[in-house]
Amino acid sequence: MASNADKSTIRPSEVEHFSAHAGDWWNPRGTSAMLHRLNPVRLAYIREQVNAHWSLAHEDIRPLKGRRALDVGCGAGLLCEPLARLGAAVTGIDATPANIDVARDHAGKSGLPVDYRAGSVETLEEPPFDLVTCMEVIEHVEDPAHFIAHLARMVRPDGLLLLSTPNRTARSRLAMITIGEGLNLVPKGTHDWQRFLKPDELEAHLTANGMEVIDREGIGFRPDKGFFRSEDMAINYLMTARPVSRPAT
């Protein structure tokens, strides 16, 4: 098990890049527009997975009440705020202090008590969480294996870890860099294709840290349809894992 007083997984160049766009996070037509379009897909997947894991009722409007959630690489809170509305006590952590400033300001105006921290997951010193999310983040960190070890550390024995990340394929390079960055749909320099992880690579890191992958699902995109869940994981995908040593239900 990795210790908390460990090397940082933060890449300074990524902090610099995202600092430049921090003020635009909540603008649905700004530099984070694609994340705004992606968020409903991520939320639907999260809701489906937590419902199945904890046998929650689909009609419950606050299914995460009484549970603690951690969003790692939270940006300015696009996922933290919906998780808080679902009832969770939410902690969001991000390597870019400017993102956290924007997140705190927006949550305050929204009346949502999200606990935002500037830093990285290896700095956290507290009990594990029921739900840990890490969406579109692992491709930006230093040493993904080390990073995943700390994600796994933060999951309770009966908890869930949900991730999303681009796949390393020719199609993802075309869609996310050639087209996405080439047409300024996302800021230039956001992605480094060499740092994308294939699903089997991500699963191997999770398995090595005592996690069992229980679901994989692709995210597709069409200009006329936007983002949608798919069996095809060639561009982007979601993954759910749980600790192997968990209490019987």
- Largest sheet, if any? 8 strands, mixed
CATH architecture: 3-Layer(aba) Sandwich
Report strand %: 15-25%
- Terminal residue distance: 25 Å
Q: What is the count of distinct domains?
A: 1
Regarding CATH, which class?
Alpha Beta
Judged by helices, strands and strand pairing, the structural class is alpha/beta
Shape: globular
- The overall average pLDDT, rounded, is 90
The total beta strand count reads 8
Could you tell me the radius of gyration in angstroms? Answer: 17 Å
What portion of residues is helical?
25-40%
Question: Explain this structure to me?
Answer:
This protein is of the alpha/beta class. The protein has one domain (12-243): Vaccinia Virus protein VP39 (Rossmann fold). The protein has 7 helices and 8 strands; from the N terminus they run ααβαβαββαβααβββ. The protein has helices spanning 12-19, 33-54, 80-85, 97-110, 144-153, 170-179, 199-208, and strands at residues 68-72, 89-94, 115-118, 129-135, 155-166, 211-222, 226-230, 236-243. An 8-stranded mixed sheet has the order 3-2-1-4-5-8-6-7. α4 links the parallel β2 and β3 (115-118). The longest helix has 22 residues, at 33-54. It is globular. Mean pLDDT is 90; it is low at 1-5.
Topology:
Layout lengths: L11 H8 L13 H22 L13 E5 L7 H6 L3 E6 L2 H14 L4 E4 L10 E7 L8 H10 L1 E12 L3 H10 L19 H10 L2 E12 L3 E5 L5 E8 L6
Parallel strand pairs: 1-2, 1-4, 2-3, 4-5
Antiparallel strand pairs: 5-8, 6-7, 6-8
